[in-house]
Design a protein that fits this description.
6-stranded antiparallel sheet, 22% strand, globular, 563 residues, alpha+beta
């Protein structure tokens, strides 16, 4: 409506209002006119006084239409800053699996109706992508990761997502749905320049990362509706924020202890895990009352109220456990302090749904733990369990990437990395290092005569002999084929030689018996020392290798020191 038209209407409405002073103002016609004019004035004045009112109303209606449309994605929660470190760790974890992977995390913005980029490993991902992009939108309806190849999809769909100028047709990606509860709210997109680089193992590992992310997002959404628990939830979420997959497990559980101190009021905290040797639980960490079971001790969970949640694989909250379970003890019947404790709150720690330990809180007296305490401990134990699972996957991944698949020794690359670190450390502290190269004599004839399976058996046995005869601080690797390398830490060359000779003799003495085949072998060794022969890794390796071949030239089955 033009400004002139509005002025004209205001004038008209004002004149009509003046009809109030005219006699017979109770006339129906006049009353109707006054009502119309009043409404008109109100609308026009409102448009000036509240210019955003009508617009907001329209937006509200539009928002309601979106919510009523079941085909539209539901609104995702705001990704809290507390999880920025978690997102960073997930990104770094993916890159540690395969350096050629490029990842981007997209979360739905239902207002703008786009996928917004929340995190990425490179700048090649677009900041936002339309909801109807087939590469991402199809993931929302899938509960499983999807592998997509460039040659099978319209190139325009890729260009909407990635700024990539050299499409070759071999590019691929695998996509993982990101969820808040049961609602898909985004996708993790992992791009690779050739589909052959995608392995099923990588997909499973990254899938576990996404599960951690989903749990984090769900917890944030839950915290938004539980205002009374915000502080405690924040403390639990901080375990995710501060978590690093490289973190030592002891350091992590100290963080768990500090979290428990901040959330709960207890007299005794016990975190216990299933022992690897037997069915007992081993106390990993305690806090509070220190006159009974402490760190490092073991107990039978079947006789213990502290082990009850582990046995039942369910949370336990008892105000007076001695009254309900008179036949049980706290740890065992040797602790007189058992008489002091009555209230118990305990939750299992799980891996793949099975109990692997428990977190137990106890109070002196019969003051019960509340339902909020129960919810908080349950949430804490669930999150700790997830982090433990993530740590286990990370450690397994690191081990598989750093170890030789046959012998279990360090592989070539990892051995060299450790060698470089020891050179730096020894240089700082003025220490010496001894390098020994071993090579099985005439190993080719063993493979040619008896086959590679028997040859693998020989390699395993030789690696076992070498490993058993060095210290835990020494570094042993399979350098390649039938070659083995040993780095003796803080040891001069003269002390290295007796050890090398001992290993050579043990290998020659053993009879390698398998499937009716019995063979005796020998091995040749060459040695070099840091800094005696060189302060350079390549030079030390070359001199030890040359010395080893000098041993072979003399008939093998011996040790030669580099010149």
């Amino acid at each position: 409506m033009s400004i002139y038209m509005q002025i004209a209407l205001i004038t008209l409405f004002v004149i009509i209002q003046l009809l109030f002073i005219i006699p017979h103002h109770n006339n129906t016609f006049i009353i109707t006119l006054k009502g119309i004019s009043s409404a008109g004035l109100l609308v026009i004045i409102s448009s000036y006084a509240f210019p955003g009112l009508l617009k907001a109303s329209k937006n509200l209606n539009r928002s309601q239409d979106l919510n009523d449309n079941s085909k539209k994605p539901k609104e995702s929660p705001f990704i809290d800053q507390r999880y920025s470190a978690l997102l960073e760790n997930i990104k770094n974890g993916i890159l540690s699996i395969n350096k050629s992977y490029v990842c981007g995390l997209y979360i739905i913005d239902p207002v703008s109706e786009v996928f917004n980029l929340k995190s990425s490993s490179e700048e090649m991902f677009k900041a936002s992508v339309k909801l109807d992009n087939p590469l991402l939108s199809s993931v929302l309806n899938s509960s499983l990761p999807k592998t997509v190849k460039y040659k099978d999809v319209n190139p325009e769909n890729w260009n909407e997502l990635i700024s990539y100028e050299k499409w070759k047709g071999s590019e691929s990606a695998f996509c993982f749905p990101v969820k808040n509860g049961n609602n898909a709210i985004g996708a993790l997109f992992v791009f690779v320049d050739h589909f052959s680089k995608i392995s099923s193992q990588d997909i499973e590992v990254i899938k576990s990362f996404v599960e951690i992310l989903n749990q984090g997002i769900f917890d944030i959404g839950k915290s938004e509706s539980q205002h009374l628990k915000n502080k405690n939830l924040s403390l639990i979420h901080d375990l995710f924020k501060d978590f690093d997959p490289e973190t030592d497990s002891d350091a992590f559980f100290k963080s768990v202890k500090n979290t428990c101190r901040s959330i709960f009021k207890y007299d005794k905290l016990t975190i216990s895990f299933k022992s690897s040797e037997n069915e007992e639980l081993k106390v990993l960490l305690t806090d509070g009352f220190d006159e009974d079971m402490t760190d490092g001790f073991s107990f039978n969970p079947r006789n213990s109220i502290v082990g009850l949640s582990y046995i039942d694989n369910n949370i336990v909250n008892l105000a007076d456990w001695k009254n309900e379970f008179p036949e049980m003890h706290r740890f065992d019947d040797t602790f007189e302090s058992s008489e002091y404790f009555s209230a118990v709150l305990s939750s299992p720690l799980r891996a793949s749904g099975k109990s692997i330990g428990s977190i137990t809180l106890e109070r002196i007296g019969k003051k019960p733990f509340t339902s909020i305490d129960t919810d908080m401990l349950k949430l804490l134990s669930e999150n700790v369990s997830k982090i433990l699972g993530w740590m286990d996957i990370h450690h397994q991944l690191n081990r598989s990437a750093s170890r030789d698949g046959l012998t279990g020794l360090l592989n070539h690359k990892t051995f060299l990395n450790r060698f470089a670190k020891e050179i730096d450390r020894s240089s700082r502290f003025g220490e010496q290092l001894g390098l020994i190269f071993f090579d099985i004599d005439k190993f080719k004839s063993v493979n040619d005569t008896y086959g590679h399976l028997y040859g693998d058996y020989v390699l395993e046995e030789v690696s076992r002999i070498i490993s058993k005869n060095v210290r835990s601080i020494d570094i042993v690797g399979r350098y390649g084929g039938e070659e083995f390398a040993v780095l003796l830490v803080n040891t001069d060359i003269n002390a290295c030689k007796p050890l090398a000779e001992k290993i050579v003799k043990k290998i020659a003495k053993k009879t390698y018996l398998k499937d009716g085949i019995a063979v005796n072998l020998t091995i040749s060794a060459g040695m070099s020392g840091f800094p005696l022969h060189s302060d350079n890794i390549e030079s030390l390796i070359a001199k030890a290798d040359k010395a080893m071949y000098a041993t072979k030239g003399n008939g093998g089955n011996g040790v030669t020191i580099a010149k």
